[in-house]
From TrEMBL:
Residues 24-190 form the NADH:ubiquinone oxidoreductase-like 20kDa subunit domain. Pfam families: NiFe_hyd_SSU_C, Oxidored_q6. InterPro entries: Cytochrome-c3_hydrogenase_C, NADH_UbQ_OxRdtase-like_20kDa, NiFe-Hase_small_C_sf, NiFe_Hase_small_N_sf, NiFe_hydrogenase_ssu. [4Fe-4S] cluster 2 binds at residues 220, 223, 243, 249. Heterodimer of a large and a small subunit. [4Fe-4S] cluster 1 binds at residues 24, 137, 178. GO terms for molecular function: 3 iron, 4 sulfur cluster binding; 4 iron, 4 sulfur cluster binding; electron transfer activity; ferredoxin hydrogenase activity; metal ion binding. This is Hydrogenase expression protein HypE. Coiled coil: none annotated. Residues 330-349 are annotated as: Disordered. Its cofactor is [4Fe-4S] cluster. [3Fe-4S] cluster binds at residues 277, 280.
């Protein structure tokens, strides 16, 4: 029985995870740091309500060679049962590869020839209950799709088409990041698994097919340095704790929650630790955000306006801060204290 003939709830789900796109395996490595939940919690059944999960990822697998590839071949034949296809890395245009191929996974059992990634996508994506693009390369093309690249790389939606729907009726679910923020991916995967178990509604996605609760706000809206921007107080170098817009930070216009979530166990996150946001979760990355370290377009105007408004607000807040840092004088009306209480040690007024 093929996977696309089945419907939730599922008791068991396979995760077929390929990083054979144009990739550095950085997203796989990143996910090993997840804790909300951890990959181990999902695989060991520690999360209530999830189906039993079988992971097939070459970096984390014990099997190698034909033993590892067996699950992928079974899925392509419709023999594996329900599975989620996780794709890591950008998708090359094999029409530009000449007589060879850009990237492949495993060999054809009959011919012995390598099987291109695009062939696997053609075979697996329509049968998958859900398809998840992990990292910006898989979501939107990323680094390998920069202007001038010879591979014609693209994101998974670019390859499959905007009208693609999985066997579960879902479009591609994009979880961008270079690499992906580990808990963002595991939280998304957990939602999809709960949906596969019949315990969650359809995952909400924005226009770029990102989970709305993770990418609905900008870096700036969650940044520890945002108040400095409001007060027109900008860093002049990377040693400053102040707003970094004028030294190249794109945070005000980039959809990402890393400043709120941190990187590992709530710690880190680019601007939180002195790095600038370079827009790595965005479909336009990297071309639209280069050259890095330069002041973003429009920052001069916005920073100039804040330079007038901000110091005035900062001055008023300084006055209020000074007042609020003094205890009230507990007295009746008038200048003199009339409570009648005399402290034992009257060291201050």
């Amino acid at each position: 029985m093929s996977n696309d003939a089945q419907a939730p709830p599922f008791d068991e789900v396979h995760i077929l995870w390929t990083s054979e796109g144009m990739s550095c395996d950085g997203d796989t490595v990143s996910v090993t740091a997840a804790s909300l939940p951890s990959l181990e919690d999902v695989l060991l059944g520690a999360i209530p309500g999830l189906p039993k999960v079988h992971l097939h990822n070459k970096v984390l697998a014990y099997e190698t060679g034909d033993a590892f590839m067996a699950a992928f071949h079974r899925a392509a034949r419709g023999e594996l049962g329900p599975f989620i296809l996780v794709v890591e890395g950008s998708i090359p245009n094999e029409r530009l590869s000449g007589e060879g191929y850009w990237t492949s996974m495993g060999n054809d059992p009959e011919t012995g020839e390598p099987i291109p990634l695009t062939t696997w996508l053609d075979r697996l994506a329509p049968r998958a209950w859900a398809v998840v693009a992990i990292g910006t390369c898989a979501a939107y093309g990323g680094i390998h799709a920069m202007a001038g690249n010879p591979t014609g790389c693209m994101g998974l939606v670019d390859y499959l088409g905007t009208g693609f729907r999985s066997a579960g009726g879902l479009p591609v679910v994009n979880v961008p990041g270079c690499p992906v923020q580990p808990d963002n991916f595991m939280e998304t995967l957990t939602w999809v698994l709960h949906q596969a178990a019949g315990l969650a509604p359809v995952i909400p996605l924005d226009e770029q097919l990102r989970p709305t609760w993770l990418f609905g706000k900008t870096v700036h809206e969650g940044c520890d340095r945002a108040a400095y921007y409001e007060q027109g107080d900008f860093a002049k170098d990377y040693n400053s704790p102040k707003c970094q817009v004028k030294v190249g930070c794109w945070g005000p216009v980039v959809n990402c929650n890393v400043t709120k979530r941190g990187w590992m166990d709530g710690v880190g996150g680019c601007p939180n630790v002195g790095g600038i946001c370079i827009g790595c979760t965005m479909p336009g990355f990297p071309d639209k955000f280069m050259p890095f370290m330069d002041e973003p377009p429009g920052a001069t105007l916005s920073a100039g306006l804040m330079g007038v408004y901000g110091p005035f607000i900062r001055a008023l807040r300084t006055i209020t801060n000074h007042s609020a840092n003094r205890e009230p004088r507990w007295r009746h009306k008038g200048d003199a204290l009339t409570t009648g209480y005399e402290p034992r040690w009257n060291g201050r007024d």
